[in-house]
Design brief:
The complex is a heterodimer of chains A (380) and B (154). Chain A is α/β, with parallel strands linked by helices and 380 residues long. Helices cover 35% and strands 19% of the residues of chain A. In chain A, helix 3 packs across helix 14 (333-346). The chains are: A alpha/beta (380), B mainly beta (154).
Chain lengths: 380, 154
């Protein structure tokens, strides 16, 4: 199989109530990602956008941004899911042999709408939707199940929020850089017990874009310094209905990680991976997903966190960008993670550079309580 | 960014999308809701392959991909597997005012959990592992709110 590289990346600053339209945000990041790759729009023949019609408030949402994504006179297709899945589709279209240089762009303006109303619509209208459940209240059910299964404490989850908001202090793109304490998290407003305000990610506006190219083109078009290879990918989906799953069981993530590691030739993730961006839509998710990714045994994520393993200067820095807890542009988030991993590998992550990075991991989720997972391994 | 952008008064237009749908409930869930509405009974269905008992019933087993066509009546009792006390108001979505409680109830006689409200108890007294029973609505219409909520058993 031919190798595929990310040869350009760009992100907006993540903010609430951004004054730009979707199309303006997409134009900004697409143009800058092309600049970063050192190519022009004429060299692109494949555009994958990542968006959701419900979040955008318009159907066939990719059509409205196609010219901004440099798809005018070309082909554009859309992934309705996290940006990590958009990258997967972009890579697959390249590997099909039908397409060349590819733009994957994602946009989100959640602050223009109502998150609870939109995520409620992800539930079965014939059963759970009528109960009013949404992403936050279902996550609260998962948080408590996780606490119960492994005798964890809310204070341990709070530590994730402290770490990631602290990391965001080094990231000029993050929405909420904050120096906070476990006490601050514990005393923040109750949202859905056991989740408090500071356990929840803020819905954030923003956009991100990456440029993908297969090996031959990548080597022709870009410099060695800019090229970051997609070494491995895995994806897997769990049951749709919450009641059909054990919400503290990460079987889908384990399967996704196993495939990504096997493709990238990784046998000891904690030893071989230098930095990870994982999908912390809520504080408790970070340790839960780190367990599923095999960085520690089931139920031990919080213990490793307390021992500093996942700190900025720890054995495996996790979410040095500040994570989704510090800025959560839904669906853009996974693409932003990929862009962050690229910057870390290139050594261009500025104040948030964790040191020398050879191998990075980006993890995205789709669906309620991490129904679906996509794991990427990137490297030099 | 060009300089003129700093001086623009950026406008915001209000909008709302309202589109009606008529979703068929399908044969499996229709049978479930009709039993609930007409006879006040909670049923489940069992996979002939792995024996998993699903409630609400499913049109196919998530494990075996077979039709779970054996129907079993449940006693309507169960155990709280997890719960949350919701503290925020969302009047357009929530059928009741906050604070209220959602629970995933592991139903006796089934292998899956049913999502529903837990009520008739102080929020701070709810516990994982607590035994609960379904309270049915008096006027039933053939939907999930025909179960009003679950309450502590006994």
């Amino acid at each position: 199989m031919e190798k595929v590289a990310i040869i350009g990346v760009a992100q907006t600053k993540y903010e609430q109530n951004k004054p730009e339209t979707f199309a303006e945000l997409v134009y900004d990041v697409t143009r800058r990602a092309l600049e970063d790759a050192g190519i022009t729009k004429d060299e692109v023949d494949n555009v994958v956008s990542v968006s959701s019609d419900f979040w955008d408030g318009r159907t066939i949402s990719s059509m409205a941004i196609q010219d901004s994504a440099c798809a005018y006179g070309k082909d554009i297709t859309t992934v309705e899911g996290d940006g990590t899945f958009g990258c997967l589709y972009g890579m697959m279209r390249i590997l099909s042999g039908s397409f060349g240089v590819t733009i994957v762009c994602a946009h989100h303006k959640g602050t223009e709408s109502n998150m609870n109303g939109i995520t409620n619509c992800a539930f079965d209208p014939l059963v759970e939707r009528k109960l009013g459940i949404d992403a936050v209240s279902s996550a609260a059910l998962q948080a408590r199940r996780y606490m119960t299964k492994y005798a964890l404490k809310e204070e341990q989850f709070a530590l994730v929020s402290v770490k990631n908001h602290g990391n965001a202090m080094r990231n000029p793109l993050a929405l909420f850089p904050m120096e906070i304490t476990v006490e601050d998290v514990m005393n923040s407003r109750k949202i859905a017990d056991p989740l408090k305000l500071l356990d929840c990610s803020p819905v954030t506006d923003g956009a991100a874009a990456i440029v993908l190219a297969a090996e031959r083109q990548a080597k022709k078009l870009s410099t060695r310094k800019k090229r970051v290879w997609l070494l491995g990918v895995g994806h897997c989906t769990d049951a749709f209905r919450l009641g059909d799953r054990d919400l503290a069981d990460t079987r889908a993530l384990k399967a996704a990680a196993k495939r990504a590691y096997s493709m990238a030739g990784i046998t000891d993730p904690l030893k071989e991976i230098d930095v990870a961006e994982v999908y912390d839509a809520f504080s408790y998710m970070e340790p839960l997903w780190l367990e599923g990714l095999g960085f520690c045994d089931d139920g031990k994520g919080c213990e490793y966190l307390e021992r500093g393993y996942f700190n900025f200067d720890g054995r495996l820095p996790v979410n040095p960008s500040g994570g989704r807890l510090s800025a959560h542009p839904v669906q853009v988030a996974g693409l932003a993670e990929l862009a962050e991993c690229v910057l870390q590998i290139r050594g261009e992550a500025g104040d948030r550079q964790v040191g020398e990075v050879n191998v990075a991991l980006a993890h995205g989720i789709n669906g309620m309580c991490g129904q679906s997972h996509c794991v990427w391994i990137l490297g030099r | 960014m060009s300089d003129w952008k700093k001086d623009v008064e950026v406008l915001v237009h209000q909008g709302k999308i309202s589109v009606p749908y008529s979703w068929t409930v399908g044969s499996t869930l229709s049978r479930w809701y009709c039993e609930l509405r007409d006879n006040g009974k909670i049923w489940a269905n069992r996979c002939p392959g792995c024996g998993t008992v699903f409630v609400p019933p499913k049109a196919k087993c998530i494990h075996c991909y077979l039709e779970p066509h054996d129907w079993v009546e449940l006693p309507g009792t169960g155990t709280v597997e997890t719960y949350t006390v919701v503290h925020y108001e969302e009047p357009a979505l929530h059928p009741r005012k906050a604070p209220f409680i959602y629970g995933l109830i592991k139903m006796d006689g089934a292998d899956t959990c049913l999502l529903h409200f837990i009520d008739e108890i102080e929020p701070e007294k709810v516990k994982v592992g607590m035994r609960v029973e379904a309270v049915l609505a008096e006027e039933r219409e053939g939907n999930i709110l025909d179960i009003r909520h679950f309450r502590p058993l006994g």
